[in-house]
Write a structure and sequence with these properties.
The chain is of the alpha/beta class. It has two domains: 208 residues, Alpha/Beta hydrolase fold, catalytic domain (Rossmann fold); 96 residues, no CATH class. 38% of the residues lie in helices and 14% in strands. An eight-stranded mixed beta sheet has the order 1-2-4-3-5-6-7-8, sandwiched between helices. Helix 1 packs across helix 2, helix 6 runs antiparallel to helix 7 and helix 6 packs across helix 8.
């Protein structure tokens, strides 16, 4: 085995601010790395997560201009945990508004977990604005995935933890956990709302990585984290991501035919199981899928960090220069092969 890559050194933002995106919402954003570097946008998970310091360390700060933002209702964006005017398509529009504000023509888009969902939705809506995609912990917002994590699947592997997740819900309502949680997370009783938010969030925190992390589980149960994560995830999931039809992301995949794609998936991911990455890789034959054999879902597991950092290095300007320098010179005696005609998807791509 080759030595695993680690994170780049700590990298503080050189710019931060808020962007007003509607009468209700303003989003917090930050930039780090090299202001003249290759633009790269990083999308956090959830819905309901937020920017984390380690995310700025997945790219070489000398080569990349790194952009992050807290999505509507998340982190330092306002209002906290707000669900009004908060859908996938509002977030896609926010990304475009941020790109225009920062004067960026095209950027690399990276996202993990829900960030992979949003990254796909954005790239399929605006392929002309995306130079490459790096997606981790693939989540397609399918019925299969939602049932796996919130109904039956992961519950068979972590039954004692799932029992605690199910505890706030009366047995008669456990046939549809998403609907039962939605009634309580948005119900009139503030004590019940907080109890359910903490149970929801702790379930996710316990399932994130291959090895347990009690400190993370405790952090996920704090009210500030739990309320945003539970309310926004449940809001998005009962509405199936606000997509117009099932498997919308896979059906739109041909729009990405001209964009380099790197996929990273933990083999033992309990939150967004391997089937999503497998299906996406089949829909994107040009994508490179790397399966990490000793990882779950968390973006901070060593094997996941290694795979993601290798992808950012390969796609960096320095990586492209190294690849060009190591390529063999063309053979002047070799016959010329005519350029292939563009495919139908390339001709019709907008």
């Amino acid at each position: 085995m080759t030595e695993r890559r680690g994170l780049f050194p700590p990298c503080d933002p050189y710019r931060e601010g808020w962007l007003r995106v509607s009468d209700r919402h303003r989003i917090y954003y930050q930039e780090a790395g090299n202001p003249d570097g290759k633009p790269a946008l990083i999308l956090h998970g959830g819905p309901g997560g937020s920017i984390a310091d380690y995310m700025r360390r997945l790219h070489d700060p000398a080569a990349y201009r790194i952009v992050l933002f807290d999505q509507r209702g998340c982190g330092r964006s306002e209002p906290h945990a707000g669900i009004a005017d908060n859908t996938t398509w509002h977030l896609v529009a926010d990304i475009e508004a941020l790109r225009r504000l920062l004067g960026i023509e095209r950027w690399q888009v990276m996202g993990g977990s829900w960030g992979s969902t949003l990254g796909l939705a954005y790239a399929e809506s605006h392929p002309e604005a995306v130079s490459e995609l790096i997606l981790r912990g693939i989540f397609l917002m399918s019925e299969e995935e939602l049932r796996w994590f919130y109904q039956s699947g992961a519950s068979l592997i972590l039954p004692e933890v799932f029992a605690a997740f199910a505890a706030p819900i009366p047995p008669a309502e456990r046939g549809d956990m998403l609907a039962a949680y939605h009634r309580r997370l948005f119900g009139p009783d503030p004590e019940e709302r907080l109890t359910c938010a903490r149970a929801w969030s702790r379930w996710e925190g316990a399932a994130l990585s291959l090895l347990p992390d009690p400190a993370r589980e405790d952090d996920f149960e704090t009210p500030e984290v739990a309320v945003a994560l539970a309310r926004l995830e449940c809001h998005y999931f009962v509405n199936r991501g606000f997509f117009p039809e099932a498997d919308w992301l896979l059906k739109q995949a041909p729009r990405l035919s001209g964009i380099p794609v790197r996929l990273v998936q933990g083999r033992y991911d309990l939150v967004t199981p391997m089937i999503g990455a497998h299906r996406l890789a089949r829909a994107l034959p040009h994508a490179v899928l790397r399966v990490v054999p000793d990882a779950g879902h968390s973006g901070t597991e060593p094997g996941i960090i290694d795979a993601v950092v290798r992808a950012t290095e390969d796609l960096s300007p320095r990586g492209a220069s190294r690849a060009k320098a190591s390529a063999p010179p063309p053979d002047p005696q070799a016959p010329r092969i005519p350029d292939a005609a563009p495919s139908r998807t390339q001709r019709t791509k907008t």
